[in-house]
Amino acid sequence: MNYIGREESNWTPKILQTNSPFTSTHFLTYFSISFFNKTIETVANNKEEIKTVLDEFFKKRGSVLLSGDLKEIEGFYDKSSTYGKWALDHERRRVEYVKGWSEKRNLKFTEAESFYRIKSVKAGENSVWVYLVETMKMGYAYNIKSDVINYMGLGIRHSVQLVKVDGKWLIRRDWYYDPLDEDSAYIDAAPAEGIMPEIAPTTSKPETEEEAKPKKKGKYDREGAVAYADKYAGAAWGSGNNYEYNPKYRDYNGVGGDCTNFVSQVLHEGGGLPMDYVWNFNGKDSSTAWAQAPALFNYLIYTGKGKLIAKGYYLDMVKPTEQHPKGAIREIEKGDLICYEEKGEIVHFGVVTGFDSIGIPVVNTHTSDRYHVPFDLGWDKRVIYRFIHIND
């Protein structure tokens, strides 16, 4: 039972949490409950108990993400329920993935701190559903550059069901879009192999006299695109706009995913690419090419607004080849795009917003909200990447 990952299909959030193998933990808790329904007597009578449980759970959640010790949060789950067991099992899988990814990338996570905001609370029969948004800040350092901490942000929307068992509130379900376990097409997903050497990012000093010449500003405003992507990265730490999407545009979360809609906004609002009759948003609805990943890819390539740099598995993108002597990863720039393909279908889009301390591209995305996250984090070794250069 795996619900995460296909952002351009009709799908439902999955049961998951956090966990991993790392060092110091910092946790921030922000709590604000809006009781839209004063008739919820169950909630009104138990809100302080529920608050205490959630505060402690999210604090431990950050700790587990660094330590990898699942025992820290086992006691929060209703293990007498099949759903509770599933939730904990998904947590275990997530821990294993993040641990494996960090080892394969030769790095350690150094920090994990979160706060959350409750959007609504609804009482059911013998249970309470809490709808909340978690904002997480994480730090990581490569072993070859351990003195440099890279920071990234995640935004996670939870639907949590709590039940009272023997006088104690326990988590029976926790459904959410998870940026650290994006790959829904495969069970027991494992990260791709590949400990990276240090890469010189595209923003480094030019190597030739021709490269050193100042470039004319093109039709595509790369800095503007990155600024927009950073401002409207949603619930992810680092984002602006009070951790909210741009209200000017429709939010497609829950109806297929918002990742491609966000990338289209970045290209148009930030980058200055004009809409046309194929690629557009009219204030209420959007065209297929605006909001669906395969259609946007085809639109960019066939109109010449974008160029495919390379396509392949993780190692295909990072290792030097005859066609890409420094690796395709060296040719991508800020404001360019990365497509994610599973089983022959493009399922997700991210926009490149920078490079980390060894030159790995970092991306911003929606639905699973990300801010400056390494482009492959959360994805399976069988995922195929497409690097797209937006033509200036």
UniProtKB/TrEMBL annotation:
Domain of life: Bacteria
InterPro entries: Amidase_6
UniProt-listed Pfam families: Amidase_6 (PF12671)
Ranges of residues in domain Putative amidase: 219-382
Segments of this protein annotated with the region Disordered: 198-217
Xref: PANTHER family: EXPORTED PROTEIN (PTHR40032:SF1), EXPORTED PROTEIN-RELATED (PTHR40032)
Protein name per Swiss-Prot or TrEMBL: Putative amidase domain-containing protein
Organism name: Thermoanaerobacter siderophilus SR4
